[in-house]
What does this fold into?
Amino acid sequence: MTTAASTAPSRPPASASRPGRAPRRRFPLQPVAAILVAVLVLGVPFWLVIATAAKDRAEALDPNLAPPSEWRLLDNFATVFADGRMTTGFLGSLLVMVPAVVGVLVLGSMAAWILGRRGGRLSAAIYALAISGIVLPPAVVTIVLLLRQLGLAGTALGMIGVYMGMYLSTVIFFVTGFVRTIPHELEEAARVDGAGPVRVFARIILPLLRPVLATATILICLYIWNDVFYALFVIGGRIDTLPLNLYQVASAGLYLQNWHLIFAYIILMSLPLLITFMVAQRRIISGITSGAVK
Amino acid sequence: MSTNLTPATGAARPHRKDHPLWFLIPALAVLVVFFFVPTLFNFVYAFTDWSSFKSEINFAGFDNFASLFGNGTLLNALKVTLVYAVLVAIFQNLFGLGLALLLERDTRVNRAVRVAFFVPVIMSALAVGYIFQALLKPDGALNGIIGLLTGSDVSIPWLGNTTWTIVVVAIVHAWKWMGLSMLIYLAGLKTIGDDVLEAGRLDGAGRWTMFRSIKFPLLAPAVTFNVATALLGSMNGFDIVQATTEGGPGGTTELLNIFIFRTFGQGLFAQATTMSLVLFLTVTVLAFPVIRFLRKREDVL
It folds into this structure.
């Protein structure tokens, strides 16, 4: 894959001198096996996407691994942009994702700070309830009913609320654990200077939470950017998002004759997250794994 | 723990007014309105005849359960969901662990391949489903490759078999998420000290013994995390199945969420709610061990 070239030079060769490895010389079986597995397991599907997205309609009718007779990738991108409501989908995705992520981070951090600092039964009970959403599935049908009663059905505000309700638990779980590792003395110092709770939170706590908030941002952006299930119920047909458009294009009648456009759409819609990931991959990977294994 | 009551440390501890409870209110308000109230509604509207065909909603007792149970859809969807979840958990962990062991050493090639395997994780599950639908068609690319290798025409209907398609779709799901499991396993492998491995090597342990007796037991936290997330993630699955089979053939891949979406689209809101409640109860019953695990991990941190 082309990803190899873009990521390899970004790291210093410090790991080459890892201690404790017996210096044995042998045929480079492992690198060959690693590349072979990647080509078979990832290369085939990815090549199918790229090759098909670069074909014209007749050639793409039956998606196969043959290279396109003529590369029309940019033409197809242009067609998708013109016909596939790419721009409105992109803006719609941003419209629900950005406020939901910001809201969930701010409200979640506020709650997590209190839950992480206060002891006692009440806090423990609220904490248990607040993180239960990590495992419990949202009641997707009755959410629609509730939004209708609130007058929020089919609106961006309703979708933002639903996403916030779904992912607040994740934020509270991650951040509460992190808050407990922050020494009390840091808050105390500010308090001695006469700072109230709002000031302590905004000036001392929030900046310290940056690493854990970065991880949470990545995870939640990933979920919301790619979500189609909850969007279908809440805003389907009213507001365009990228996955909703993909679903509509793909399930429409013209679907089977337009694989080249579907795959071109898939490439374009994956690009924002792919680029973000390529730029910040080390932080993202360490952020995601740090919480999982202890 | 309630150490904040001990007088010895009380002076250094912050007072309660320094962490006012009103900071909780915005988050709790959102949680209550958008999460807990709909969940409570689930328990109410599953027992009504709410639908798009009439304006008023009447109490209907256990009618929805009776009809869904009677025509077999409830048990079928429940069975499919559980089988799917178990299959995904198995495949995702086998693939993830295999990749982690293959790419364990910190070489340039391995780092690049690891990054490549994370790409499906950040892709849309719906998109992954469409890619594999094209790949797995009877005249699709996979059959083309097999045909090339065997020298004969192959047209296996990967997505059209009432017995095996659920396995195929579970493998696609595992393909999408195996990069995440791999990362968790790699992080787990990193926590194993070199001295432990060296001791094993000095005792003459071969590769297999090293894995079975040293690495695998020490990977227990990673296994727990990966199995739990794979189970929960696939029980809530929708996108990949919808994009590949839409629940078919013959309802053999109809997950609870697929059923909910389909009946909701037909205007049978009460039936969709009933299935939503079934999903909620199933996950709740199975999630208790998971929550306990998360809490325990919390104490360790």
